[in-house]
Amino acid sequence: MLEIKTKKAGAELTSIKLNGEEKLHQGKEHWNRQAPILFPIVGQIKDGQTLINNKLYKMGQHGFARDMEFEEIGENKYLLKSSKETLEKFPFKFELQVEYEVNENELTTKYKVINKDEKQMLFGMGGHPAFICDYSTGNYQIQFNKQEDKIEFLQLENGLISDKKAPNILKENAINLEADTFKNDAIIMKNIKSNKISLYNKKEDKKILEFDFTGFPFLALWSKIGAPFVCIEPWYNTADKVNSTGKFEDKENILKLEPEEKFECKYKLKFF
Q: Could you tell me the pTM of the whole model?
């Protein structure tokens, strides 16, 4: 049985325990976050600013939701509403709801965005949970549940998506995690056939977790060199490209909502 803990700051998960064993990154030495919510952008925007309705707005990496205090509206359920503070960075009125549901050894993270403005709203959305995993041992791999013959790996260049292709690092339909896997920052993938991946311990011949990211067009893996965790990140969009126009509306796969329209997505974790 899973037990979870969450907090109002960033509506972030702080603990996932399976039969008393912690599965979520707990240390602050390498990274002081655990499972931040990426909204209203994923990744960086070029020069830290973007043009929305002919006006420049500044936003840090992955947006502002992860650094804001949410309202607790139920058990492990949170709400963030637009405010004077958010409107200075992002010119749309919105509601962002986050909910965590536990069912035996499964955890579902749900996001709901509602456009409370009188105009069309553009935004990005993503998750960023970090799982305990000493990947530098070379014992772990990411396995895909479908044959990945069309997958594309994107390369980061100073935090932006490069126009150069990253090498395909799949071996026997899996990504082997090694000590230098994240030397060039995150591994970002698109054109993925799978809707599930597994974190697998080769040495122990054991599945650690299964991650269902159905509906998300991008998937990223990230850690810091020598850090004992791996982030598995389902994204709806990515950082700006190096040759970006700087217009928010031109971002690849930008999400759009008409007034009072809702966007919902979720990802599901199963622990073993």
A: 0.97
